[in-house]
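Page 47, continued from p. 46.
Same chain as before, 239 aa.
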Amino acid sequence: MVRSFPEVLLIIVAASLIAVNALLYAGRYAGVIVGEHAIDARHAAASSATAAEHAEQDASDSLPGRFVPTQGRQHTLAYPVRPGVPFCAPDNIRNDCYASNPPSSGLHLPVANLVALPDGHHLRIPPDPGVYDFAVPREVIPHIEEHAGVYLGYNCDRDDCRATVERIKDLVTQEVSLGARVIMSPDPDLDPDTIGIAAWTRVDNFAASDYTDARVRAFIKAHSCRFDPEGFCPKVPVN
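Result:
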């Protein structure tokens, strides 16, 4: 049967697409990214996982903050979670509650493009690095940390605490501009006039009156990108 020129052209295009898809499929499942800078994706993922495991288990006293053993990386149901994940009793640490305040690992909300919070704000889950003037859901915090981030919360009754928070906002804004992965927000779970800062398996709580730039900056520099199981950080961080 003699085919018309358009039919022949359509067959050639279809065959080409099938060949390209086959190559990409083979490359993906062989763990290879095809191209000039080809790498073994399986090896890269294994290396990232190994580094994350070491970071997760590092209980060294040389790192800022108190070490809190990991409670895993499981997802909750989609937002809103009712009832929310509670805090554990000190003598009954389990994986269905949080062992620290702010949380430093454990159950967390799955990714969502945008959710409406009860106060009318809208939030991406997990949030992008930056300073937020509204509280984020408790169950978001471990997801921030799983994505190589640091969470900094505050709860102020006194004016001197509020003045301290303005200083911290400037510091966090500067660190984010340098490439640090930090999310700062009000946190009603904290005691009044208290600052809480957390990363994966690390937490530091202190009175606002005890704040120093050096204390918070050291925590951020030590823990932003320290635990990065999903590869959110550049190999050579700016900060």
